[in-house]
Design brief:
Structural class: alpha/beta
Number of helices: 16
Bound molecules: ligand SAJ
CATH topology of one domain: Rossmann fold
CATH architecture of one domain: 3-Layer(aba) Sandwich
Distance between the termini: 64 Å
Strand order of the largest sheet: 3-2-1-4-5-6-7-8
CATH class of one domain: Alpha Beta
Number of strands: 14
Helix content: 25-40%
Oligomer: single chain
């Protein structure tokens, strides 16, 4: 970006005349659009979903994240433009952020189709000579921004440094955690042009109160984001593997982890029924794919994924063993899952371990029902019965805590116990006071605890 343009860009930031486009108004894009609007900028928000656009334009929250419920600008708010048309929005924008999904395909490969489609729509709408800065925020693996977008830029005959600049700034958004919203989280920026990188540092510093830094070329920022979540997946896999080993040694893994956590640099993670969401169980596959592309083994990352991905099936087998010891056959048994969402206090079923757990139980002939006040019955598989209220939960043989929603932890356990056919309880998130529940009559079990 020529110095003059960088200076003009900096001036627009300091006098709040900069116009910011956000492509994709989901869990990340909508809070980002609101954040830049709150910071005083002109905002153009784009989403392909007419339902999403209609809800946002009506001041409503289309995401499952309750933290967004009360902050969507009201209809008619100035500096706030929402549309389904990228072509309409981009010509108004000095900088365009792309926050579209990067899921994995059924065969666990990265799906970059949303990134490609959004990039193409943006590049086709960029005015020649405007030097619009386009920033990808979606989680990808090192090399994707250049490999996916540059061919389109060249195909359209656009010139880097004249028509556009490309940068990468990974989102670090944590659904359901107001302490780490878009305005309270550190950011890193990758770009082949240091002046553009530093200009974006100035911009993002208006969004977040935390550290923002230029880290060099695109690939550095792309890699940083992926490995943040790879590390988390590996750490969780370790405690999940220990949760399989220690019961066989007649030791409760939670006792071991709590003891180990007295060491100053032991990082405490918690075993569970599995690892869900659109970040942790997904991002490692990006790293695995990239390592495969360059012929370098990623054995540890792959093994950790296998441990976490098979946790629901392991738990299902443990549950069947508990039922068997209680003299119950699978065919005549009903299990109530408390929680379905991948994470507490969030209504998001993406990659939830509840789904493979319910599937495994269903395949063994066990009837499965679910209670999750953060979701709706339409989001459940056909074979799962929906329980609207725990008052209606009659005749179950086992209650399984899958998601540590407050509504699933701080419930009337004495009443639920009266409604059970068999008083079996399995704490799949190790958050319940098992001795208190045992004292009132529950036959308690838990992940990583000897039966
Ligand atoms: N989980 C465990 N044991 C743990 C921690 C998590 O089983 O000790 C499970 C959760 O139940 C859930 C899954 O892992 O099913 C993911 O949980 P998460 O707490 O990592 O939540 P996410 O998926 O929303 O992760 C986000 C990520 N944020 C971004 O990618 C920007 C992640 O990097 C954050 O570290 C994480 O939030 C966070 O810190 O909460």
């Amino acid at each position: 970006m020529p110095m003059a343009l960088t200076a003009a860009f900096a001036t627009k930031i300091s006098d709040n005349t900069l116009s910011v486009g956000i492509i994709g108004l989901g869990y990340v894009g909508l809070p980002t659009a609101i954040g830049f609007h709150d910071a005083g900028f002109e905002v153009w928000g784009v989403d392909v979903s007419q339902r999403t656009v209609d809800m946002v334009m009506a001041g409503k929250n289309p995401t499952g994240d309750p933290d967004v419920d009360d902050i969507v600008p009201a209809p008619g708010t100035e500096r706030w433009h929402i549309t389904t048309s990228t072509a309409e929005a981009v010509p108004h924008c000095d900088v365009v952020l792309v926050t579209v999904p990067t899921p994995i395909t059924h065969d666990l490969k990265p799906d970059l189709s949303y990134v490609e489609a959004a990039g193409r729509a943006v590049f086709e709408a960029i005015p020649k000579g405007s030097n619009t800065i386009v920033v990808l925020e979606s989680t990808v693996y090192p090399g994707v921004t250049a490999q996916t977008w540059m061919p389109i830029v060249e195909e359209l005959g656009l010139i880097i440094g004249e028509d556009l600049e490309i940068a990468y700034c990974p989102e670090r958004f944590n659904p359901g955690d107001p302490a780490h919203g878009v305005r309270q989280v550190a950011r890193v920026i990758g770009c082949s042009n240091p002046e553009v990188g530093e200009a974006l540092v100035t911009l993002y510093s208006k969004l977040t109160s935390e550290d923002v830094r230029y880290v060099g070329k695109l690939e550095v920022a792309e890699a940083a984001k992926v490995i943040e979540n790879v590390q988390r997946d590996i750490n969780i896999a370790l405690v999940n593997e220990l949760a399989r080993i220690f019961p066989a040694l007649d030791v409760d893994v939670e006792d071991v982890l709590s003891a180990a956590a007295t060491k100053w640099n032991f990082h405490r993670y918690t075993p569970g029924v599995g690892v869900g969401g659109h970040c942790i169980p997904v991002d490692p596959y990006y790293m695995i794919q990239r390592a495969a592309d360059v012929g370098v083994p990623a054995g540890l990352i792959t093994a950790a994924r296998a441990v976490n991905r098979t946790m629901p099936n392991h738990v299902a087998q443990v549950l069947v063993n508990i039922l068997w010891k209680a003299g119950l056959s699978a065919e005549n048994t009903k299990i109530l899952l408390l929680g379905w969402s991948y994470k507490a206090e969030v209504g998001d079923p993406r990659e939830t371990p509840a789904e493979p757990l319910a599937e495994a139980l269903h395949e063994k002939g066990i009837a499965v029902a679910v209670y999750d006040p953060h979701l709706s019955s339409e989001e459940m598989p056909d074979h799962v019965e929906w329980v609207d209220s725990l008052d209606m939960a009659e005749g179950y043989d086992m209650a399984v805590l899958v998601t540590a929603h407050k509504a699933c932890v701080e419930l009337d356990w004495a009443s639920l116990l009266q409604q059970m056919k068999t008083p079996l309880l399995y704490d799949g998130r190790r958050v319940l006071d098992l001795s208190r529940l045992e004292a009132i009559g529950w036959d308690v079990h838990a992940v990583g605890r000897p039966n």
